[in-house]
Design a protein that fits this description.
mainly beta, twelve-stranded antiparallel β-barrel
């Protein structure tokens, strides 16, 4: 079982706090939970299931996942769906070892739109759902610099239907502070598109 709590704050005062957890159901299946809160007032919850495509042998690891959840925006609950695919492998040639992974996800939310029509003397309001898409990809490179410290670099790519494409580069230090607990400190820098420099802090728990 793995659990992490993290928060990110940028120079404009925007912030995001998230809880991430995963639990191994079997050797090839993992159940995950993600909870998030943005300073703009948006709250999200996502439950997903991940399945390994490989048999655990060889250097490469492939997984697929799908999940469902909900987002609260301005007091309204919006359904959320997600599908994803990921690849990863260990880097044994690095001193201490490391890994590289690529994860791509497609999120779909359904915004409620209203249309008011007049039918004779009667005014009728119709509501319907309009899908909104967000595509994300994360490229992560990790290095076990010492037995108690990891260095993690991550390129975050995001393309939202309501915003322009953006890319951010994150760098973090993860330090073992005893038992199942690790502490993460890092910085996030915009590479393309909108965004500000941000600080990241988190706590990891592995059981």
């Amino acid at each position: 079982m793995f659990l992490s709590i993290s928060t990110e704050h940028d120079r404009d005062g925007n912030s995001y706090t998230g809880l991430y957890g995963e639990y191994g159901l079997s050797a090839r299946s993992t159940l995950g939970l993600e909870l998030g809160h943005a300073s703009a007032g948006e709250v999200s919850a996502l439950l997903w299931l991940q399945r390994a495509l490989d048999d655990g042998t060889g250097a490469n690891r492939w997984t697929v996942s799908s999940g469902v959840g909900v987002i609260e925006r301005d007091g309204e609950l919006v359904p959320l769906g997600q599908v994803g695919v990921a690849w990863g492998r260990g880097l044994d040639r690095l001193p201490g070892g490391g890994w590289i992974s690529v994860e791509a996800r497609l999120k779909v939310t359904a915004e409620t739109e209203s249309v008011i029509l007049r039918q004779g003397m009667t005014v009728v309001e119709y509501g319907y759902l309009t899908p909104e898409y967000t595509a994300k990809a994360d490229v992560t490179l990790g290095w076990n610099a010492t037995p108690k410290m990891m260095l993690i670099n991550q390129l975050r790519l995001e393309d939202r239907q309501d915003m322009a494409f953006s890319a951010k580069l994150g760098a973090s230090i993860v330090r073992d502070i005893g038992g199942p607990v690790k502490l993460e400190l890092g910085v996030i820098a915009p590479v393309a598109g909108e965004g500000e420099y941000a600080l990241r802090a988190g706590t990891w728990f592995a059981f």
